[in-house]
Amino acid sequence: MSEPVLAQLVAALIGGRIRIVDLTQTLSPDFPQIVLPPEMGQAWPFRVEEASRYDERGPGWYWNNFSCGEHTGTHFDAPIHWISGRHLPDNSTDTIPVAHFVAPACVIDCSRQAAADADFLLTADFLRQWEKTNSRIPSGSWLLMRTDWSKRTDPVAYQNLDSTGQHTPGPDTDAVRFLIEERGVLGFGSEAIGTDAGQAFHLKPPYPCHYLMHGSGRYGLQCLTNLDLLPATGAVVIAAPLKIKEGSGSPLRVIALVPGPADTPQPGRRTAAKDKKSRVEKKRR
Amino acid sequence: MRPPRKNPILRTRVPTLPPSVRSRVALGLTAAAARGSFELQVCRDCGTVQYPPRESCRVCLSLRLDWHVQDGAGELLSETMLRHSNELFYRERMPWRLGMVRLDCGPVLVAHLHGDCAPAPSRVRVRSALDRAGQAALMAMPEKDTPNMADDRQLREMTCDPKFRKVLITDAKTPLGHALVEAIVAAGADLVWAGYAEPWKKTAGFDQLASIPQVALLPLDLTNSRAVKDAAGEIGGRVDILINTADHHRNYGIAARNGVEVARAEMDVNYFGLLRLAQEFAPALRGRGADGQSSAVAWVNLLSIFALSNFPPHGTYSASKAAALSLAQCLRAELGPAGVRVINVFPGPIDDEWNQLLPPPKIAPARLASDIVHALRGGVEDVYPGDIAEDWLARWRDNPKALERELAAGT
Questions:
Q1: Which CATH superfamily is domain B166-408 in?
Q2: Which of B144, B175, B314, B323 has a CB 3.0–4.6 Å from the CB of B271, allowing a cystine?
């Protein structure tokens, strides 16, 4: 194993010993955005306007202009997003150390609990139990809460609003404190529209995952998907927000590297052999 | 009487228009008809009421002529059935009944004659309504209402009656949207598409609309260009009347709200939403302006009386509605050649959450809905529902600068 480390990585990727899983929802105008009382400032939903499509507006090319909020679709929350993190150093998308954008992840499976109770709160005890059957949550890792909420493809079920507001799972205050103070996580990720539970306004403090995580310089990832394809431990998440000046967050592509079975080439991976084959096929046509 | 169904193997008739050239002075008749008023010139010096409109009094040559509302009561002197015309519009609609009427106020005129008018001599009411060219035309109606008189073939060429037609209401989630769906169904529409955005936000009563047999729910968010395009692709070729009720209303001036987000959201729905709708739906409407007796006939915009003059407490909303009014004039010019009427509705404050702090009178959604149906059945293109709207319109027509000062002073 005297090969350079990145060469080993590339060999593992090509050989399929490392697979890449997309944890990102498609940015689409149909994907719901967070709901706030209408008198408050709002996050824009994703919208797209055609600039040209091989037509009189641009005869040979197709392109769009899009608009969205910093917190639209699968997105990253920077500490400056919350008032508790506003004075921290390196707290916005342009100043966060890039080393934080690649980190290991622990995936806590709460899918059964969330299916039974949309208001399910992840507790510190639940996390301790998880550590008993897995391993201690390492410092500097993402804690990803798997709820299978992303499988709710109907936006009405995904938002899950009633006259008392939103009902989606999230962590309780003790769990957030435990993860920050006792485990030193990098941040918290969820499948629902926020890192906090839908009813977290009623917790102490309100929205503990935002208030406490961002207040101690930690990050958030929300609207994740495919968490069910990740191992409980051992995945590496690549989550690099757009470098927006003083950005409070950004939509982003989140991918995970996961250990795969040995020597099964990754579907879709471009290899020299494949390229040659496709060139031959083209010639035949 | 239900019009016969279209024969789909025949070519869809291309829209033609009745003669539309008018002198500037004759447009006075059109200006009144656009508001639903029948006005004739009255000489300030000798009192003569005259028709057709002229530059001077036909009796005393005075130039001091004023437009005054007339009740249209008169006597049908004679009638004829037109069986030939060199005007393409009438050639395609023969035979056509015309009558000569002497108004009680003096003038003798030729008018389109409703099928239910008794043979001459008989009493009739002459009304002035916009025809397919958007110009004032005179129609003699029976003195007293008759059953189903709105179904008259010649009258339907002037009105935009929802009866037997297919109607899109772009936002049916609001109280006005509910009321309008119900009113349009009650008016005899064959089909009503009830548009809705943001399905995860429930509003009381919306789900019940789906149980009305004539109603089909349609996902439609005017801020989403692709959604508008998709909706137009699916139903655009079948819409006879489009009623744009989508409205984003917040109550801020300039100083009362930091930033442009609220104003932008208002513009995105109220102005760009109309633009997106017009780009996607207007082409199909233009193509069906003469598609039989249930042709594409009307496009209704829910504007606001604030479009005429800025109401500072709702300042950015007023600006978005003024922008929409300007765009609606462009749309009217573009749909006009197809005979599709653009009706602008300028209500006073609606009795809803965003007008909570305004004192009464506020127009009830159900009343506004019935005024819109009334406008479609009539021959108007500008409607000012509610006491506030009528009052503002009168003040604005009298002296727009005075109204600006009064609104700035909060009176």
A1: NAD(P)-binding Rossmann-like Domain (3.40.50.720)
A2: B323
